[in-house]
Specification:
Largest sheet: 9 strands, antiparallel
Structural class: alpha+beta
Number of strands: 9
Length: about 160
């Protein structure tokens, strides 16, 4: 399920998620090392043409991780302080490298990334938003493909 499909399935959560990621340039990407342990790295996320794109420097460790095992989690930058306006947002899924073709050519034309680079298209497996409501409840929204949006409130 790509970003466009997620947006159609959960438009309100998708809009909030894009806004949270748009508030800051750099976010935290988690990938899996060869030995299965987690690796976290800084990353810029790009929502474009109905896709969530992940671009990275050539031969970066995070790119090599994704080539080996496409699973990832992408955490929105929480920003300064602790207010986290809009909540805390995380996207999980699988990332598949686009090595050539029209999609990569279009991306290069629009974004003009430093060359050479790796470009990954994502397939989403989960989007989670956590926020405080009325200074009383911790609210967790969980979306997964083919499931309705779940909202959990804890006092």
């Amino acid at each position: 399920m790509n970003w466009a499909a997620f947006t159609a399935a959960a438009p309100e959560l998708a809009a909030i998620t894009e806004k949270r990621f748009g508030a800051f340039r750099h976010h935290v990407l988690a990938t899996l090392r060869k030995d299965g342990s987690p690796r976290t790295s800084g990353l810029e996320a790009d929502f474009r043409a109905g896709e969530l794109w992940l671009g990275m420097m050539a031969d970066s460790l995070k790119a090599l991780d994704l080539r080996r095992d496409p699973r990832f989690a992408l955490q929105a930058n929480p920003g300064d302080g602790t207010d986290m306006a809009g909540g805390d947002v995380r996207i999980s899924g699988r990332a598949y490298e686009i090595e050539d073709g029209r999609a990569k050519d279009r991306y290069v034309k629009e974004v003009e990334p430093p060359q050479p680079f790796h470009l990954f298209r994502t397939e989403l497996t989960e989007v989670v938003r956590t926020y405080v409501e009325d200074e009383k409840y911790l609210v967790v929204q969980v979306w997964k493909p083919s499931e309705p949006l779940r909202t959990i409130r804890r006092a």
